[in-house]
Amino acid sequence: MRTSNVNQPAAKTFSRKARITGAVLLSSFCLVGMTSCEDEDDDPILTTYNQQDRNFAIATSQSLNAQLDFGQLALDNGEDDSVLEYGTMLVSETTESKTELEGIVNGTDVDISDEVSDAMQAKYDELAALSGEDFDMAFIDFQLETLDNAMSIYENQNDNGENNTLKAFSDKTLGKVKDHREDARLVKIELEAEGI
């Protein structure tokens, strides 16, 4: 007697579906495995510092210290309201940046400076001998010059620094420096309009 299996086509279909499902699952596992591989080179660098980072910490701390001194000098020797307002803003925002930098390097082997460069000290002494309108214009002209120079410090860190936290600080502070430069430009326009 001959028996026929009526379900034979269904069995072949099931077997084929099982193989396809297995292949899809295997492919999925392979893809998940490949995408979840960690490439340590892509991890953000948060705890190591290259020589550029160390140089930046010293240079930017000296620059911030100088800007604090110059802002206070503007409040002491300035006459025009726009210079006094600029000096107030400079002290306030530079204090925030300095505090942030100190927090970033606290507990690390990265040094920052509590001083200003010799060139900045010489310029401070020169400006401190002036007062009133003479001070106002000389101060704003100097701010435009020094902020241009400061931008290069931050741009260099953004391009060549290794530590991502310092690079983020640099990028944020570069934005402030650009804003300060624009504010100084507007103060100069106002002083010129007043005939100073």
Would you give an account of this structure?
InterPro entries: DUF4142, Ferritin-like. Pfam families: DUF4142 (PF13628). Residues 51-185 form the DUF4142 domain. The protein has helices at 8-35, 51-77, 81-105, 118-128, 132-160, 164-193. With 196 residues, the protein is mainly alpha-helical. It has a single domain, classed as Ferritin, core subunit, four-helix bundle (Ferritin). The longest helix is centred in the last third of the chain and has 30 residues, at 164-193. The radius of gyration is 31 Å and the shape is elongated.
**Mean of the pLDDT scores?**
87
Write the H/E string, N to C. Answer: HHHHHH
CATH superfamily: Ferritin, core subunit, four-helix bundle
Number of domains: 1
Q: Give the % helix.
A: over 70%
What is the CATH domain class? Mainly Alpha
**Spans of at least 5 consecutive residues with low confidence:** none
Number of strands: 0
How is the biggest beta sheet arranged? none
**Euclidean distance between termini CA atoms:** 119 Å
What structural category do the secondary elements indicate? mainly alpha
